[in-house]
Design a protein that fits this description.
It is a single chain. With 332 residues, the protein is mostly beta strands. The chain is 7% helix and 33% strand. It is built from 3 helices and 23 strands. The chain has a 5-stranded antiparallel beta sheet with strand order 4-6-9-8-22. Strands 5-12-10-7-23 form a 5-stranded mixed beta sheet. A 5-stranded mixed beta sheet has the order 15-14-13-21-16, with no helix packed on it. The radius of gyration is 20 Å and the shape is globular. The termini are far apart.
């Protein structure tokens, strides 16, 4: 059975739950696209942006930012990128200038770079994980900046956030375990089951997108099965859900696999199953941006833009998608 979650193709952070109210449906990512869509840098709720319109009249239609993630004032994990999504395409010829107007500052300077996923999303990540405790600021001064397609920025956007404790989870698909560490020290090893041979789990490192206490999960929403008579059909609301990829990977509890581990070895539709008590405990440990690294699956690594799997690209691959190359953060 192995019911698992996954979101509909679309925005990463569309909130499905407000309090006890469920909105929409999710399902595990067997049928999800391997590539995340153009708006997939959205985080839960609306992004906060602090700026006033420029007093200068723009030379053309406005270039606006759809979202900046993380939201300002948040505390995130060491693998969290800064993800900026534009409302309209940015041409290749304009990207170096746009990057230079998105200044990243940090209390502990680090090397990093921007990388473009398509023509609307640009992520900035450090070369290696952020140091825990770092304070980070992004100043996106878009006033008068061209997107190369006839649009010009009319706003400044500023976000500040903090890197919290270094919490990591390492999942062994073949070993049926998840090892959780905090600031380099082992905390607990949990029993898990991952995807079946038909619906294998993504390998690689995925930063937590968000988490929800309950999510409505359906097999139909990701194209696994809409036939109620199918053994792969499910329509459930399950608890303690940690969202890893836009195509539908979660760590969570499943009623179809209540006691996961090497003894049961019941495969999921691509998600990682924990027992009820372990799922609730893990939910309390992790935050947006904490890295969950999965090994031992027959599937490839999750594409870097399928959620916030930016660290699945090697540094040379990352720089290949940058218009201005590697740089150091300014000192905050």
């Amino acid at each position: 059975m192995g019911q698992v979650v996954g979101r509909r193709k679309g925005g990463i952070g569309i909130a499905l739950v407000t309090g006890a109210m469920l909105v929409g449906a999710s399902a595990c990512g067997g049928g999800g696209s391997d590539k995340a869509s153009g708006d997939d840098a959205k985080a839960p709720g609306k992004p906060s942006a602090s700026a006033s319109p420029s007093p200068k009249k723009p030379a053309g239609p406005p270039m606006l930012l759809d979202t900046i993630t993380p939201q300002t004032g948040t505390k995130v994990g060491v693998a969290m990128p800064i993800s900026v999504v534009f409302t309209n395409p940015v041409s290749a010829k304009a990207r170096a200038t746009v990057e230079k107007h998105m200044k990243v500052s940090a209390s502990q300077p680090v090397a990093g770079a921007w990388h473009w996923f398509g023509d609307k999303r640009a992520d900035w990540r450090p070369k290696t994980y952020w140091p825990s405790g770092t304070k980070v600021k992004i100043d996106a001064d878009m006033n008068g900046v061209s997107n190369g397609n006839g649009r010009y920025g009319v706003r400044n956007y500023t976000h500040t956030f903090t890197i919290g404790d270094d919490v990591r989870a390492d999942v062994s698909v073949t070993g049926h375990t998840m090892k959780v560490t905090r600031n380099g020290k082992p905390v607990r090893t949990l029993s898990i089951n991952a995807g079946s041979a038909q619906y294998p789990t993504w390998n690689g490192t995925m930063a937590v997108i968000d988490k929800q206490e309950k999510v409505h999960m359906t097999s139909c929403s990701v194209g696994i099965s809409c036939d109620k008579g199918s053994p792969n059909y499910y329509d459930l609301t399950l608890p303690w859900d940690i969202h890893l990829t836009q195509s539908g990977t979660y760590v969570h509890y499943s009623t179809g696999d209540p006691n996961p581990g090497s003894g049961s070895a019941r495969g999921s539709h691509g998600c990682v199953h924990l027992s009820m008590s372990d799922a609730k405990w893990f939910y309390g440990q992790v935050k947006q941006g904490d890295p969950v690294t999965i090994t031992g699956s027959p599937r490839a690594k999750a594409p870097a833009d399928n959620g916030y799997a930016d660290f699945n690209l090697g540094w040379d691959q990352w720089l290949a998608g940058s218009a201005s190359g590697e740089g150091k953060t300014a000192t905050l």
